[in-house]
Amino acid sequence: MLNMSDIKVGVRLVHDGEPYVVTASDHHKMGRGGAILKTKLKHLVTGAVIDKTYQGNDKAEEADLANSTATYLYNDGVNYTFMDTESFEQFELSAEQVEDIADYMPENEDVEILIFNGKPVSVELPQKIVLEVVEAPPGVKGDTSDGGGTKEIELSTGLRIKAPLFIKKGEKIRINTETGEYVERA
Description:
The protein folds into three domains: about 5-60, SH3 type barrels; about 65-125, CATH 2.40.50.140; about 130-185, CATH 2.40.50.140. The protein is about 0% helix and about 55% strand. It has one helix at about 95-100; strands at about 10-15, 20-30, 35-45, 50-55, 60, 65-75, 80-85, 90-95, 110-115, 120-125, 130-135, 150-155, 160-165, 170-175, 180-185. The strands form three sheets. It has a five-stranded antiparallel sheet, with no helix packed on it. It has a five-stranded antiparallel sheet with strand order 8-7-6-9-10. A five-stranded antiparallel sheet has the order 13-12-11-14-15, with no helix packed on it. Strand 14 (about 170-175) and strand 15 form a beta hairpin. The protein is flat, with a radius of gyration of 21 Å.
């Protein structure tokens, strides 16, 4: 069981029998009253966000999640299909379950799958990934006059981001999956 002091951003817990991850945590100490902890919890299956307040001796059950490696195969428009790298069994996750990270998953790449009660519920990506640039307009001398020095490029997954002017089509670059920003050439 998790005490109020153990509930921090990134902690996975069970609320009403469902797995959640803490996305925000704000500790308040009232004058003569007890301390409270206001949190935002994101459902690991549906992606829905709820507000939950913990008081005094409230406890939360830690989510029993297992990690497994799977290969992302394809997207049929409704579901994303994966194959477990150990058992070679295929399974699907809905678009809602992977909507935040779909643009960072190239086909035939390995990803970490979170498993809750024997069922795959979510995908975890590393903080930085490498993607190929498929479209990059040429950088022209004088483009930095506005102080930017960046241009919009398209990556192999369809994601469009801002990158430095020297990036060219066909190069591989490293992207931060949390911020969606260019990091460096790979």
